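User: Can you recover a sequence for this backbone? Please restate the input before giving your answer.

Assistant: Of course. Working from this structure:
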């Protein structure tokens, strides 16, 4: 009987009587792959091309790492993919600058998880799709126009002039975003929340906020007429 390969980490499963003289080397490689899966780290730069994480049979591969840090400035809507049928957990840090584009972590044929700039995720693949098990959200300061992603927590600074922050396109039920007047300047230079095609609080208009010290959250209701609605204001 010949050697085989495990389904998820692509370990070499040695058949009885195989690999005389190389058994120890193969075993050591398997142990290194397990170490990589338990505590391995890799930084992956993404800019203008989607990236596929690799799972080479019987060898260390970047997709087998436990922690993946994504870096770079996006120049297009991009995907980071793992192969279909692989079951694995990940800690993924989105340290990219989205520059108005989207970044998705997914299986080759799945829908995956849309990542939010600055956030860290606990993700798992069930062999068909990548699912979000947890999200550590990070507040970010913004002082110029930007399109944000679902989950964003924004310290909006309008000290230098009015700022427009645009909501995510094609939001899903339960998507949330939060805003705080970082410099207490909204009364002088307003924050405009661009609706990006969705209603805000039952209105087909951008939301203009000119209350000093305002802090509020929006959640997408799933109803096209209501659109985004307040979680608090």
């Amino acid at each position: 009987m010949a050697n085989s390969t495990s389904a998820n980490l692509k370990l070499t499963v040695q058949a009885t009587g195989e690999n005389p003289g190389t058994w120890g080397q193969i075993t050591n490689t398997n142990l290194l792959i397990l170490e990589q899966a338990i505590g391995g780290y890799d930084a992956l730069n993404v800019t203008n091309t989607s990236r596929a994480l690799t799972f080479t049979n019987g060898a260390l591969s970047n997709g087998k790492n436990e922690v993946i840090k994504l870096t770079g400035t996006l120049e297009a809507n991009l995907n980071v993919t793992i192969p279909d049928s692989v079951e694995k957990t990940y800690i993924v840090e989105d340290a990219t600058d989205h520059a108005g584009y989207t970044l998705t972590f997914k299986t080759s044929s799945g829908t995956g998880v849309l990542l939010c700039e600055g956030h860290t995720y606990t993700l798992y693949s069930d062999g068909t799709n990548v699912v979000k098990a947890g999200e550590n959200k990070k507040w970010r300061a913004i002082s110029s126009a930007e399109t944000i992603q679902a989950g964003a927590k924004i310290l909006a600074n309008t000290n230098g002039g009015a700022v427009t922050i645009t909501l995510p396109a094609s939001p899903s039920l339960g998507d949330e975003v939060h805003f705080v007047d970082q410099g207490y300047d909204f009364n002088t230079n307003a924050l405009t929340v661009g609706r990006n095609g969705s209603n805000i609080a039952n209105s087909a208009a951008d939301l203009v906020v000119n209350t000093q010290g305002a802090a509020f959250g929006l959640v997408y209701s799933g109803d096209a007429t209501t659109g985004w609605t307040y979680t608090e204001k």
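That completes the design. Residues 4-136 form one domain.
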